[in-house]
UniProtKB/TrEMBL annotation:
Protein name, as recorded: D-alanyl-D-alanine carboxypeptidase/D-alanyl-D-alanine-endopeptidase (Penicillin-binding protein 4)
Biased amino acid composition, Basic and acidic residues: 1-28, 109-123, 131-145
Annotated source species: Amycolatopsis roodepoortensis
Ranges of Low complexity composition bias in the record: 191-200
Record's keyword annotation contains Hydrolase: yes
PANTHER family attached to this UniProt entry: D-ALANYL-D-ALANINE CARBOXYPEPTIDASE, PENICILLIN-SENSITIVE CARBOXYPEPTIDASE A
Name of one Pfam family that matches: Peptidase_S13
Protein family according to the UniProt entry: Belongs to the peptidase S13 family.
GO molecular function, one term: serine-type D-Ala-D-Ala carboxypeptidase activity
Region (Disordered): 1-161, 179-206
Length: 669
């Protein structure tokens, strides 16, 4: 039997099993009709076995003599062979197919039907008496598609008459004219005993093959899961009993955990002066420090524990920023934001960029936060607002930078500090993008020569307009767009972390504006000094010319730095100034972790301070300073200010780090 057990019905009632192949003599049109007389009247006649005469010497070109019935109309015979597809035949009437079965002649001396009788040539057995006609079996559904049949067997003398299926259009089909056709189901009545004893048809091989494949897949999956479960990582993850990290004993009961952050120790005994002096004798006496001044204060008690000429004014470099930030935090609301606007110009189609003193405005796309100034406003946001509010085409963008007064560089600055390509500073103007940097993501990116004009040109390009130079915005002009900086506390944090010179000098001018003074270098320095004096700090010996500390003309004693930091680090409720100054500590870089201290404290001599020291750095030619806070081994908060003059930059920095790390290692009682 073939492997394909799908029924394949022929497309008509012709027996083409003895037709010549297409292309041979007669073009394959020899058609044999099986005698089916009386079928129309509901009668069943015995089919006679055709007489086959091999005239051509081959069983493949038989001549079958068949007496055709006159009552069966002949239909055109399609040209097809066993190797060509069969066109589906639609029934002429939409009625269910009607099948009539003719009992085939059973061979003698056998209890089971010989299903292979069409595959071999054997002697014809003697016919048996015609069986009683069977009742009509249940009708099969109409076939909508007929697959090409397999090559029909050659009729021989050993072949018996086959059942015939009659379609609604009176078309007759040999029930087994094509190998692989499923036999019709027997009637519902009880079959004869001889038929019930017949062997069932063999099971399809395809189903057995599918079952075998399914079983194999299941076995492989189970094997794979078992192998995966045996892997240490998988078994550990699933907590299986054989996992390497499975508990070897009873699982302990969970212990209670209290998640409470403890602040510095303010009640215990702090370091003694003698103990601290002994610990710092070596590090503070290093020749790499040049001329060193400094002080160490117990933040909890305010007691000075160590002092070395701390009242001597020295060049502070960037530790000057501590004074500017402290003054701003003391006198301004911590939520203050600096605005940048674009307003309607005096002429039609003209708009004016009004600088509000925010150098942190970023040119990065919306949705991309600035890595240098987290929370900064976006240029694209400002432009989008203007496009929406303008109501017409904009032809010109002008710039109003009248907010700041005086020179853009301070006394005591190196001329190269504001030159194009410098990485430390840009001209101090009230508006720019990304602090004037060419690369908004790189703190060490070169600064542009005129950052305000560059921003104006960028905005004009986004508005498809031309940059129109500087002007003064009309009073009460219609605001087309406005963006604001991060709040003051966050602004100051970015300033301290990066030791951003430009932001420090802009903040000094904002402080001057808040105090009603001129927004210039002089106005900023004066406002800073006045606020700190009013807050009760002794500024004897202080002289400042800018807010950044780039001026080598600035002078600050170490004790002023330590006093401001000590108030910021004091216990809660002890000093009314502390709440306002506390954000100052949050902006201090962490040793080996952030800001200007990120790459320091890697040497073995200073590694102990890594993660514990927080300080503001300051560096100029021959000047190295460090001021901040540190916890000692007893959890005591110590405030320090160290100023070195006449020291090499690299060696001086390293020596200062050793002193601060020693403070952390010291219990010093």
């Amino acid at each position: 039997m073939p492997e394909n057990d799908d029924p394949r019905w022929p497309s008509d009632d012709k027996d083409t099993s003895s037709a010549e192949p297409k292309g041979a003599k007669g073009e394959g049109e020899a058609t044999i009709w099986l005698p089916m007389s009386g079928m129309a009247n509901g009668k069943t006649e015995e089919l006679s076995v055709p007489k086959v005469t091999p005239e051509s010497g081959s069983w493949f070109e038989p001549v079958v003599e068949v007496e055709e019935e006159p009552d069966v109309p002949e239909t055109p015979t399609p040209k097809w062979s066993a190797f060509e597809p069969v066109t589906p035949v639609e029934p002429k009437e939409p009625e269910a197919p009607k099948t009539v079965f003719v009992q085939p002649v059973q061979p003698r001396q056998t209890d089971k039907p010989d299903w292979d009788q069409f595959d071999r040539v054997a002697e014809p057995p003697e016919p048996e008496p015609e069986p009683e006609p069977k009742p009509e079996p249940p009708r099969r559904p109409e076939q909508t598609r007929v697959e090409p049949p397999a090559p029909a067997p050659v009729p021989s003398a050993s072949m018996h008459a086959r059942p015939v299926r009659i379609e609604p259009a009176e078309e007759r089909f040999d029930a087994e004219a094509t190998v692989g056709i499923q036999r019709p189901e027997p009637p519902s009545q009880e079959p004869p005993a001889a038929e019930t004893e017949a062997a069932p048809a063999p099971k399809p091989k395809r189903k057995r093959k599918a079952l075998l494949i399914t079983t194999l897949v299941v076995v492989l999956l189970l094997a794979g899961m078992g192998g995966a479960a045996a892997m240490p990582k998988v078994s550990n993850r699933l907590g299986l009993p054989w996992a390497p990290n499975a508990p070897k004993g009873e699982i302990p009961k969970p212990a209670g955990v209290t998640r409470v952050l403890h602040g510095p120790d303010i009640n215990g005994a702090g370091p003694t002066k003698a103990g601290l002096a002994a610990a710092l004798a070596g590090p503070a006496g290093s020749p790499d420090l040049g001329t060193l001044t400094g002080t160490v204060v117990d933040a909890a008690s305010g007691e000075v524990l160590w002092d070395k000429n701390s009242g001597t004014p020295l060049t502070p470099a960037s530790t000057t920023k501590i004074l500017v930030v402290a003054a701003a935090l003391l006198s301004m609301d911590h939520g203050t934001q600096f605005s940048t606007k674009i307003v309607q110009g005096a002429e039609p189609g003209t708009v004016v960029l009004v600088a509000g003193g925010d150098p942190s405005l970023t040119s990065l796309p919306l949705g991309t936060d600035s890595p240098l100034y987290p929370g900064a406003a976006h240029v694209d946001d400002l432009v989008a607002q203007v496009k929406k509010a303008a109501g017409g085409k904009i032809s010109k963008v002008q710039l109003d930078i009248s907010l700041f007064k005086g020179p853009t560089s301070a006394k005591g600055w190196d001329p190269e500090d504001t030159a194009a390509g410098n990485t430390y500073m840009a001209p101090v103007l009230p508006v720019m993008a990304d602090g004037g940097r060419a690369d908004p993501k790189n703190d060490h990116s070169p600064r542009v020569a005129n950052p305000a004009a560059a921003l104006t040109q960028k905005i004009a390009g986004k508005l498809e307009a031309q940059a129109g130079g500087t002007t003064t915005a009309p009073k009460d002009a219609k605001v087309l767009g406005e963006v604001k900086s991060q709040p003051l506390a966050e602004f100051a944090n970015s300033l301290m972390q990066l030791s951003d010179n430009l932001m420090a000098d802009v903040l000094a001018r904002q402080l001057a504006l808040a105090k009603g003074a001129e927004a210039s270098f002089t106005g900023g320095a004066t406002a800073t000094m006045n606020v700190l004096k009013e807050a009760g700090f002794d500024l004897t010996g202080v002289q400042i010319n800018d807010g950044s500390g780039l001026s080598d003309q600035n002078k600050i004693p170490a004790k002023v730095l330590s006093e401001i930091l000590a108030v910021a680090a004091a216990p809660d409720g002890k000093d009314p100034r502390t709440p306002k100054l506390r954000p100052l500590l949050a902006g201090l870089p962490v040793a080996g972790g952030s800001g200007t201290l990120e790459k320091r404290y890697g040497d073995p001599a200073s590694a102990a301070g890594r993660g514990w020291v927080r300080g503001k750095t300051g560096t100029l030619s021959g000047v190295n300073t460090l001021a901040g806070v540190v916890l000692d081994t007893d959890g005591r908060m110590l405030v320090f200010a160290l100023m070195s003059s006449g020291s090499d930059q690299n060696k001086g920095r390293a020596a200062l780090d050793v002193v601060a790390a020693t403070l952390h290692k010291c219990g010093c009682r």
